[in-house]
Amino acid sequence: MKTIIISFANSTDAPLKSITAEDEGIHGILIANRRGVYDVHRESYATVANMNNAFGAYGNEIAIFHYGGHAGQTSLLFNDQEANGVGIAYQLKPSIDAQNLKLVVLNGCSTAKQVEKLLELGVPAVIATNCAIDDDAAGIFGVELFKNIIQKRMTTRNAFSAALAAAQVATPATLGVDEPLHRDLHIPGDTPREPFWGLFYKTADAIDNNPLPPVKTDTAAVNYEPNLQLTQSIFNALVADKNIPAEQLNLRKQTEIIEDNVFQKTIMDVFPHPIAIQLKTLFAAEYGSEALKQPGRRRLEQIGRVFHITAEFMGIIMISQLWELKVTGRVKKFPGPIAQLLESYFSLSIDERSVYNYSTLIRDIRQYIDSLGDVNYFVSELDTLREEDPANRPFKEACEFLTYIRSGTYFTVVNPNKPAAIKEEEVPGLCLRAELMLSAFFDKLGFLHRYTLTSIQNIRINKYRHDTLTVFDHQVVKLMNSNASHEVNYYLLAKHLDNSGVVLTKQNLTVFNVERRQWKGDALEFLNLSPLVIDINSFESKADRSNLVFYGQYRSADDVYVFRNVSKIDDEINREEININRKFGRTEQQEQGRYEAVCQQLTAFKHLALQALEPQT
Question: Which domain of life is it from (predicted)?
Answer without folding.
Answer: Bacteria
